[in-house]
Amino acid sequence: MIDKDILKLLSPLKRKYYMTKIVNYFIHGIHCFFIALLSMIVLSKIVSIPYIMNKSIKLFILLMMLTIIFSIYKKPKDIELAKVIDSFGLKERVVTSLENSEDDTVFSSIQKKDTIKHLKDDNLKKNIKIKYPKKTIVSTVVIIFITIIMINISTPSVNRAKDIERDKQIIEKENEDIEKVINEIKEDKELTQTQKKEIENKLRELKKTLDKSKKLEDLDKDILKTKKELEKLREKLKNEEIERLTKELEKIDLTKQLSKEVLNKNKENISKEMKNIEDKLKNMDKKDLQKSIEDLEKIEKSIEDEEIKEAINSLANSLNQNIDNLQNSNIESDLANLSNSLSDSLSSGSCSSKSVCNGISKLEGMVSTGQMSGQASQNGSTQVGGNGTGGTGSGSGTAQGQGQGQGSGSGAGSGSSNESGNGGSNGGLGGNSSKTQNDGGVKDYEKIHAPKNQSGEGYDTQVSGSKGEQGDVDSTQVKKFGDKVGEEVPYNEVLKNYKKSAYEKINTEDIPPKMKDVVKKYFIELE
């Protein structure tokens, strides 16, 4: 009974002591967090670490959880509390009472009653105070101050991390847009099941590429490829739509010629044909006019394009209202409206499938966003250049006319630059230097001529011959610009060099962002 009274009196003291320990554990946990945070921020100035704020929050939560687990594990035992209480002047009374908890002797009972008497002192609880680790707190404040300073220091690695974060957000948004397009494609009634499946597979493949990619600008090729596939489908659907439209227009004599112009996509002739239709209508008698109205109303029901449908319906209504006085009516506006509707349907961007058009628009926006997302950061700079000095070149030739003026000549030239070439004879003209180039495994693409220039000075040289009685004198003027006949190299090799040079310019010089986008898109389209 006495032992239970002692434990009961120790219980509030134990709770307060435990709280002081927990406070100390959390102070040390926060200290460790800021040390880890500072280390991570310093590292981020050297190596790109995106989403450092999210990582910091996760790290803080992790350390706090570890602190809670540690504080539970290190929950003070009764004997530890007893030593603390005895340090307040109880002279080991509490420790002795706990050690003799199972001893029922008279002496032990007297000692325990004395312990209970002292434990009832209210000052004991006041003596249990939180001892803040001052050194730890001061060092934590210093670390926080240094962390704030380091956060405001910007480096290329920090900027790259920000670019990665921005690109990731854009990619997530674009994934959502692609998913919306896929859903629209599934519900599109203009597409066949095969077409829907094909488009969905293309877009799903693009989504996988988006998920794997870290840089938005690297996706431009894949996005453009998918966009071109949708554009091909849009063109196919548009052609099919035009064919169906022309078949409907062919059914009546009034618009038979118009159907041919629509099929040929000749907008100018469509406008001219509207004038012919106007003349035909005004020259018809009432019976023929009534038949034409019925024909227009009939084909209007079969036409898919809403604008054309509305224009034909409007024309039919105007004719019906002015059937008795068509000569003085004004049907030019209705015919002009029909002409404009037909021209609009023939334009390259039009398509009966709104989901396909919307998908193309989304992909076009994604390409623009990708080009604007990064200013194509490159580590280091590559300078391409060459220094050369054109040596003095000289040439001489002699020729003697014999018989029909046949002759021979020889010439030689020499020079020095950063490229070496051997002079040779060439039909009496200065020798051309030649260079063997290792293609480095370049594929057998179409080759194009790439001239070279040594940027050296030469001299005007004449090759002349002395003639006999029947010989001719031939003279050749050689330019002094130092031009060399170039060589044929693969197209993709030339494109790669031009692209490299252009990207170096736009990343090292002060060029408007919009112009940078134009240059990048240009080379992407060429590849």
UniProtKB/TrEMBL annotation:
The chain crosses the membrane at residues 22-44, 56-73, 136-153. The keyword Methyltransferase does not apply. Residues 161-329 form a coiled coil. Keywords: Coiled coil, Membrane, Transmembrane, Transmembrane helix. Residues 369-475 are annotated as: Disordered. Residues 383-414, 421-431 have a biased composition (Gly residues). Residues 452-475 have a biased composition (Polar residues). The keyword Transmembrane applies. It comes from the Bacteria. This is Uncharacterized protein. It comes from Tissierella creatinophila DSM 6911.
